[in-house]
Design a protein that fits this description.
By secondary structure, this protein is of the alpha+beta class. Helices cover 39% and strands 25% of the residues. The chain has one domain: UreE, C-terminal domain (Alpha-Beta Plaits). It contains three helices and three strands, in the order E-H-E-H-E-H. The longest helix is centred in the N-terminal third of the chain and has 13 residues.
């Protein structure tokens, strides 16, 4: 179902930045996940962390992150 599909809206090499972005999105009531969190920290950022939200929330989430990019 497309409404439950998660899409990547941002990538981070910094754990701190990724967690802060995820917290910002979640504080607006939007479900968010970080993909590659452990791989990225294990391999020193060689694999970026990906911030993912539901398809229908993507535009709102991007707007929330825009001032912080």
């Amino acid at each position: 179902m497309q409404s439950e599909e998660l899409i990547v809206i941002a990538q981070y090499n910094s754990y701190t930045e990724a967690i802060m972005a995820k917290s910002l999105i979640e504080s607006a009531g939007i479900y968010a996940e970080l993909r590659n969190l452990y791989m990225s920290t294990t391999y020193g950022g060689a694999i970026p962390m990906e911030l993912m939200v539901r398809y229908q929330d993507a535009e709102q989430a991007k707007e929330l992150l825009e001032p912080h990019l």
